[in-house]
Design brief:
Layout lengths: L4 H17 L7 H16 L5 E6 L15 E2 L6 E10 L1 H6 L5 E8 L10 E7 L13 H12 L7 E5 L5 H10 L2 E5 L3 H7 L9 E7 H14 L2 E7 L3 H9 L11 H4 L6 E6 L10 E3 L2 E10 L5 E9 L7
Parallel strand pairs: 1-3, 6-7, 6-8
Antiparallel strand pairs: 1-2, 3-4, 4-10, 5-8, 5-9, 10-12, 11-12, 12-13
Helix pairs in contact: 1-2, 6-7
């Protein structure tokens, strides 16, 4: 895979972020989502590869989307698989809250676990706790193992959990052992990736969120040397059928990071739409805007943070 492809892809996430950021706080989730999809699709046309979306958007969305099976890119160069979320956090943007991002991951063919549009139980950590997580254990046991690996007390850990009724028991268990909790409304991809950067103050992600988002997080954590495990949690008979259609015979299987995202050429790029733990959001000024992105490659272990200034009189207005 061409190494410069990662830098080409960050232009795609920048385009989606610039476009969707215009809708921050305006209360219109559909418009924010559509702006990100349209900009990402246009920007992909200029990327020199032959991509196939294998992790895309769910059939629940009414707006035209970057769907699983869609072909993207210029058609030149390598044939690669793509996992993406044009706007991870549509509600976040509509309400003007933190941690919305535009996200793309790329791998060789077969590099991403095909996942249905259902839920996934996850636990994610950074490099210091790699190998210390096990979804078959209780939250208390996992947190103790993570603390031991990180050479700290459990009370030093900060655990990010989506603020949902389904997590009441998880929150109780984490509080009982004494770890600190940061509840978030949305954006568990951002939270999972944040575990890979000590300066974010996020040590662990726990709980149930979207399955496709679990694959995106795994791609980033592969590049960072972190760890994640996931187990599918279909919510109804329809989702159970989706799991079966993908040939998944054991819905209770625990997937490791190498099952979710694998290969020597995994690449990941994300651009902040709103301010978050990891990335700053888009900042507009007269005639342009500034973006903050991260781009990573598994093969080299390189992690780049990119501050870009976009002049709308000289570049496309997304």
């Amino acid at each position: 895979m061409e190494r410069n492809l990662a830098l080409e892809v960050v232009r795609v996430t920048e385009a989606a972020a610039l476009s969707s950021a215009r809708w921050m706080g305006l209360g219109n989730e559909k418009a924010a989502h559509q702006a990100a999809v349209d900009a990402m699709r246009r920007a992909f046309d200029a990327v020199p590869f032959s991509g196939t979306v294998v992790i895309g958007e769910g059939e629940r969305d009414e707006a035209p989307m970057l769907f699983v099976g869609e072909r993207i890119g210029s058609g030149d160069g390598s044939a690669l698989d793509v996992a993406l979320d044009p706007l991870e956090g549509t509600t976040i943007v509509a309400q003007g809250r933190a941690n919305a991002m535009a996200v793309v991951a790329i791998a060789e063919k077969g590099g991403f676990l095909p996942t249905p549009d259902t839920y996934m139980e996850k636990i994610a950590v950074g490099p210091k706790a790699k190998g210390a997580v096990d979804l078959s254990l209780s939250p208390a046991q996992n947190l103790q193992n993570i603390a031991d690996a990180m050479k700290c007390y459990v009370e030093d850990l900060t655990v990010v959990i989506l603020d949902r009724p389904r997590h009441a028991e998880l929150v109780r268990a984490v509080r009982e052992i004494g770890a600190r909790i940061k509840l978030i409304q949305d954006g568990d991809v951002s939270a999972a990736i944040a575990t890979g950067f000590p300066d974010t103050g996020v040590d662990v992600l726990m709980g149930i969120g979207g399955a496709p988002e679990g694959v995106l997080a795994a791609a980033a954590l592969q590049c960072l040397g972190g760890d994640i495990q996931g187990r599918l949690k279909p919510r109804n008979d329809q989702e159970v059928e989706r799991v079966r259609r993908l040939g998944i015979k054991d819905p209770d299987r625990v997937y490791g990071i190498g099952d979710l995202a694998r290969g020597a050429d995994v690449m990941f790029a994300a651009t902040g739409v709103t301010d978050g733990d990891l990335l700053r959001g888009v900042r507009f000024f007269g005639g342009g805007a500034r973006t903050h992105s991260v781009v990573m490659r598994y093969r080299s272990g390189t992690v780049r943070f990119i501050e870009a200034t976009h002049r709308f009189d000289r570049t496309p207005v997304y």
